User: What shape does this take?
Amino acid sequence: MSITLYHLEDCPYCHLVRRKLEFLGLPALVIPVKPLGADRKELKEKTGQSFVPALIDEGQVLVDSSVILEYLDKKYGPVEMPSNDYGIAVELEGEFGAIREKTIAALKEVGFGLLTEIDAQATIKKKIDKDLEPYSILGFCNPGYAYHGMTNEKDIGLLLPCNVLIRELKPGRFKVTALHPVKMFQIVGRADMMPLAKEVTALLKQAIATLGA
Ligand SMILES: N[C@@H](CCC(=O)N[C@@H](CS)C(=O)NCC(=O)O)C(=O)O
Assistant: This one.
């Protein structure tokens, strides 16, 4: 078996294909291509086009991630790809109002105040008349960390405030999940700001742990 994948590090579609190959346990020769807009001579010669991802399997050329994923599943799978884990979570028994209060208190304990709140269940019902399980997105902020972040990385506001999701798994059982700052900071790509992300992560982990205790 010989699979070749033309891959661009910044391309999310390429990563989907790489993950699928990993989940299927398929070894592949991964050939990096030049960035967006650049001349991709070898890719063009081998596949007749210049988009990535492009996969060649035993002489068969496939382009477009959805076509490739379907092909791989059909030939070598199928295999489910679970979503990435990008939260710090705990599951709790109880009633929504009490769990919400407990969550706010636990975050307050580590220095984060409630700033925003979206009742997605009510909003979706009101806007498009669809039913959703209890699903609330709470935005927390520690002004000191936020100020440090905003003054050192101007666009960091795109990731603020720190979201904590409370959603119902089944009647009387909820999952409380804080977004994982270190994982979010990977998309920022600033190694020098990782200590800040780690500090905030430790505090959020502490708060989530007390909920489960
Ligand atoms: N629908 C395609 C989209 C692929 C795509 O947009 N690839 C981008 C990189 S993420 C690309 O190769 N653009 C042309 C270029 O970089 O010159 C898929 O799912 O594979």
Summary: Helices lie at 12-24, 41-47, 65-76, 96-109, 120-128, 143-152, 181-188, 194-212. Residues 8, 11, 13, 36-37, 50-53, 64-66 surround glutathione (CB under 6 Å). The longest strand covers residues 162-170. The radius of gyration is 22 Å.
